[in-house]
Structure formats: structure tokens, C-alpha cells
Write a structure and sequence with these properties.
It is a single chain. With 208 residues, this protein is mainly beta. The protein has one domain: Distorted Sandwich (Deoxyuridine 5'-Triphosphate Nucleotidohydrolase, Chain A). 10% of the residues lie in helices and 30% in strands. Strands 1, 3, 4, 6, 8 and 9 form a 6-stranded antiparallel beta sheet that branches. The protein has a 3-stranded antiparallel beta sheet with strand order 2-11-7, with no helix packed on it. A two-stranded antiparallel sheet has the order 5-10. The N and C termini lie far apart (41 Å).
Length: 208
Amino acid sequence: MRARISDTMLSGEIIKLELTIPRLGNPDSKPNLIIKPYDEKHVSTRSYDIHLGDKLLVFKWGLLERFCNLVCPSKIAIDPTTFPNPQPVRIKEIDISKKPFVLKPGRFALGTTLEYFEVYNHALQIDGTSKLARSGLSNHQTAGWTDVGFCGEITLEFSTSYPIKLSHGMKIGQISCHPVSEQHNNYKGTFRGQTGPTLPWTLKQVQR
């Protein structure tokens, strides 16, 4: 059963409580929300700040891709109907733990949150920040929510309208917390427990 998400958005003070109170009054259960690492200074009036992890997966768009796109686009096209089978996309893994990566317009990359999350009886909404949005950066395409029962790091989908530096640990967005309004089953899908930027298909090889 898929959860129906309430229109209610928790305040920052309620988010703090959700991090400490066991679920359903059971002292042995986990809280509704777990964030690791957690720092109270990142709680705002209605959200929690999220930060960029140390790895990116950058979709390559070089001479090979440009040529194939002109001659036979189907050879390099991603086919979502075949997931999780490997796709004809060259991916390069970038370590940004010591040096920022400049994402250019027309390029696409996956990143991950520095934080690990567990969320029960609620769903998290991922969004950007005003400063980054006004600099041309989008941190998700259409996948702006977690499912109820999700656990793991959150994969971010980056595109930009202007060259921008992506640095490890930078504030990259915010999450807001929404309770569900009916009984539900916890998420047990493909991305449960994910760490690092995660693709929807199996990679044959990652270039480093």
C-alpha cells in the first residue's frame, strides 16, 4: 500500500522532536527520523540543510557521443524499460573530497548527500536553496521525494545553466518532513540502503 502524504509540513522544532521520540510510543523502536551526522545548527524553521558527499557520477558527452547522436542516436539512448540492465552510457566517477568539480551547462551528474537518513511514518521532500537556484543549479530533476521507510543516502541529480563548482561538504539543499495520513507499507525497493550516487541500472565499468 502506497502512503498518502499529508499536506502538513513539520516545523523545525517538530523535526527535532521526531529525531528523539520512539515510534508509536514503543521505547525500543527507532525514532520517525534519523539523520547521521546530525547537527542542530542545520535545522531551520521548516527544514534541515543537506550537504554534498565526496563522489559524483558524471555522464560523459564527448566526441563519441556527439557522433553517435548524429548518426544513430538509438545506439547511445538510455532505455528505461530495460532497467536494471546496463545502459550504453559512459560514466566517470569524480572524487571531490579534495578538489571541487566544475559542472558545465548541458552536462549531467549524480551526487549524494553527506547525510544518511532513515524515515518512518513520514516522507522527505528534497529541494534546493535559493542561492544555488539563482546561480542556475538544479539538484533534482523530478525525483523530489523519498518513500516512507526509506533508509540510505539521498542521490541528487545535478544539471546547471551556468558553470558551477561542486565541493564536498557544501550546503546543497534542504529536506522537509511530511507525515503520512493513512496506514502504509515501508519502502523495500531498489534504492533502500543506498550509499553514494546510485544509478537505476547496473554499471559494467566506471571510469576514474
